[in-house]
User: Which sequence fits this backbone?
């Protein structure tokens, strides 16, 4: 018996052959699917009693793309392009029957079919750009011939799928089928297509305006900064406008291989799997039952509490928001409304949706009103005594089984839990500001947190559109703990001769959305300041004493105008010079390499400690935290992935050179030639 999995079968309905792909979970084009397609199409083409062929899929979706797990491995089975070429050249009509998502290589398979029918709920797209790639099996050459240059350029460079209705309007789909009758409708369509005959898209002419490509580049310049793939996608679409089909295919192949061999796509593919892996929780019983969450309580109507609340309202989950003072409550609720109305003005919501969301928000001045909530998230002042007092009160109010979560960004969740008689129901849910926008949610597992509480918090994170990552209890958890290892040496660099904009620029060039000092200014330099102007012990003290508190008062490490545009500040730099002169450190030139080594390598070092202590489940979770919580450039795959590319021995050597104690796990991996 052959070991080849049977993932493609064929049935007959009179003169129609139906080729069926069944490769769970997403019908990816694994080598055996390509083999099966080749075998069955060869047979159906050769069989003279077959007059037309339908290609459809079992399971949740049409083919959702190439099998990403095969990338970078030795090729097996037939070449994808050859299979597609054979389907397109079939001398009888071929009809793709699409449900779920026809993505990437899946849509490219549909494009070589002569006709496409889809259910209304289907989505069609080429998301390869999100994996740092481009559609490498003719997508960039066939789309401009089917939907035109402008839409092809948009679809390939942005990677967002079209609804079936939009695809129909664009000519990408020929007919909509019934939601429950796709198989039968596709066969009927194929029967009618027999008279029309095959219609290979490669023979059509490219149409549309090439100017659309430059317009897209201009519109997305900021978003695409540092990324290679969007530009490569557009170059291929542009090539389609001037090259014959076969030459266009060669151009596409070359560009595809460049991306495939490069580090950006490796990073983006790593992130694809890392994000899915993060949802998996080690050491949890398989049959863990989730607790129902139909009503949420949020304590604190400030920036964090308001942002957290918005996540739930948007998903139709009612929230009771509690504040201590009426004016703070009104202000907080007002800000939520204002944010929604601003989004509505941009077309993200209708006015009706805004009212619906505001309608399920209950403002309250009493913790007692949280008694019927399934999940209560505290987002008050970052102070242990305050939090413990609050959790003690909640213990007396919350119903049995309610999950009690703290949005603390640094504090010991075990100690907070100890203020209750139900520590098993307590955990951390650390949102990132602005909490309605940032995708990261650190779910902090306390020593006593019950498995179903943890699993429920992770699941609710997914429900509200977050990427949730499990973190263990330690100061700052995963993200902020590593952040502090960047801030300390960054400040030290100022003492040795660097200036804030020099350090920040290195981080901006690296691809971070802001540098360490821009971030400090945003957070506020006076956070945690002792407020005694006569005590200037640190550089921060010097800034606060000079009344430079950051963006909030228009001056910090930089000066800010009314629109919060920053400029280099002579006064700030003079404060740094003066403070430096009080130390015995000589001023010297600091290089870009040194800034990288001193500010980014220690983060990797801390990541290794976090991993060794089991505070992160896996290195890829750390990458997810930094990409979704702090804007680490996606095309660099997160700090631990990037460390592998840099080379762990190089990092160890540099840390030693700069006098940083090397984490044992990092040293061990470097010595053994291993990677994170
Ligand atoms: N290859 C291999 N595995 C894949 C895969 C793919 N293309 N797409 C999804 N999977 C896996 C996931 O890793 C996950 O595995 P796990 O259960 O072990 O974690 C499982 O399938 C289910 O995936 P999701 O959790 O993402 O399921 P959803 O139902 O939420 O989403 C989906 C389904 C919309 C299809 C989503 O998985 C997706 O966007 N997949 C990627 C689509 C894509 O990028 N296609 C292009 C691939 S590149 C290509 O085709 C190159 C070609 O041009 C030559």
Assistant:
């Amino acid at each position: 018996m052959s070991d080849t999995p049977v993932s493609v079968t064929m049935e007959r309905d009179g003169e129609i052959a139906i080729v069926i792909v069944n490769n769970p979970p997403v019908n990816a084009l694994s080598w055996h699917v390509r083999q099966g397609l080749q075998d069955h199409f060869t047979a159906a083409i050769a069989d003279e009693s077959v007059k037309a062929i339908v290609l459809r899929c079992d399971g949740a979706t049409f083919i959702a793309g190439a099998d990403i797990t095969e990338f970078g491995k030795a090729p097996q089975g037939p070449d994808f392009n050859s299979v597609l070429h054979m389907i397109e050249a079939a001398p009888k009509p071929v009809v793709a029957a699409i449900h779920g998502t026809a993505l990437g290589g899946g849509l490219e398979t549909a494009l070589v079919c002569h006709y496409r029918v889809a259910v209304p709920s289907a989505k069609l797209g080429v998301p390869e750009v999100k994996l740092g790639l481009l559609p490498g099996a003719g997508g960039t050459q066939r789309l401009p011939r089917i939907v035109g240059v402008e839409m092809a350029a948009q679809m390939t460079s942005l990677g967002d799928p079209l609804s079936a209705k939009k695809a129909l309007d664009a000519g990408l789909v020929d007919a909509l089928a019934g939601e429950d009758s796709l198989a039968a409708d596709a066969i009927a369509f194929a029967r009618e297509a027999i008279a029309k005959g095959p219609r290979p898209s490669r023979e059509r002419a490219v149409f549309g305006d090439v100017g659309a490509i430059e317009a897209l580049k201009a519109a997305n310049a900021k978003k695409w900064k540092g990324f290679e793939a969007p530009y490569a996608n557009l170059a291929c679409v542009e090539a389609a406008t001037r090259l014959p089909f076969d030459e266009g295919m060669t151009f596409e192949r070359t560009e595809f291989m460049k991306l495939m061999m490069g580090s950006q796509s490796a990073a983006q593919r790593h992130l694809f799997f890392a994000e899915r892996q993060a949802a998996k929780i080690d050491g949890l019983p398989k049959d863990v039952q989730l607790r129902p969450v139909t009503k949420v309580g949020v304590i604190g109507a400030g920036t964090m509490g308001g942002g957290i609340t918005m996540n739930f309202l948007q998903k139709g989950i009612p929230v009771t928001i509690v504040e201590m003072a009426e004016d703070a409550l009104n202000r907080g609720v007002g800000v939520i409304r204002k944010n929604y109305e601003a989004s509505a003005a941009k077309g993200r919501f209708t006015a009706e949706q805004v009212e619906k969301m505001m309608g399920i928000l209950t403002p309250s001045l009493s913790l007692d009103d949280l008694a019927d909530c399934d999940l209560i998230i505290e987002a008050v002042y970052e102070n242990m005594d305050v939090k413990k007092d609050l959790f003690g009160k909640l213990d007396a109010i919350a119903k049995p089984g309610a999950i009690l979560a703290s949005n603390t960004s640094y504090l010991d969740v075990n100690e907070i839990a100890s203020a209750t008689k139900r520590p098993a129901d307590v955990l951390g849910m650390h949102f990132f500001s602005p909490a309605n926008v940032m995708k990261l949610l650190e779910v902090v597992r306390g020593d006593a947190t019950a498995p179903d509480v943890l699993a429920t918090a992770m699941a609710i994170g997914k429900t509200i559109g977050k990427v949730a990552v499990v973190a263990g209890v330690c100061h700052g958890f995963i993200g902020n703990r590593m952040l502090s290892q960047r801030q300390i040496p960054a400040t030290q660099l100022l003492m040795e001769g660097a200036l804030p904009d020099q350090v920040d620029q290195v981080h901006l060039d690296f691809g971070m959305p802001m540098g360490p000092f821009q971030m400090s200014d945003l957070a506020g330099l006076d956070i945690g300041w002792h407020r005694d102007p006569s005590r200037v012990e640190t550089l921060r003290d010097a800034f606060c004493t000079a009344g430079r508190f950051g963006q909030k008062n228009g001056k910090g490490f930089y000066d800010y105008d009314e629109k919060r545009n920053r400029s280099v500040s002579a006064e700030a730099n003079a404060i740094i010079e003066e403070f430096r002169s009080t130390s015995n450190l000589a001023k010297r030139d600091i290089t870009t390499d040194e800034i990288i080594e001193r500010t980014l390598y220690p983060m990797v070092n801390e990541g290794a400690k976090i991993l060794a202590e089991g505070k992160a489940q896996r290195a890829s979770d750390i990458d997810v935290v930094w990409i979704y919580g702090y804007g680490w450039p996606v095309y660099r795959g997160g700090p631990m992935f990037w460390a592998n590319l840099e080379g762990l021995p190089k990092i160890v050597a540099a840390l030693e050179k700069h006098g940083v104690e090397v984490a044992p796990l990092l040293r061990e991996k470097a010595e053994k030639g291993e990677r994170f």
Q: What stands out?
A: Residues 25-26, 28, 64-69, 101, 103-105, 108, 127-128, 131, 133, 135-137, 139, 273, 276 surround 3-hydroxybutanoyl-coenzyme A (CB under 6 Å). The radius of gyration is 28 Å.
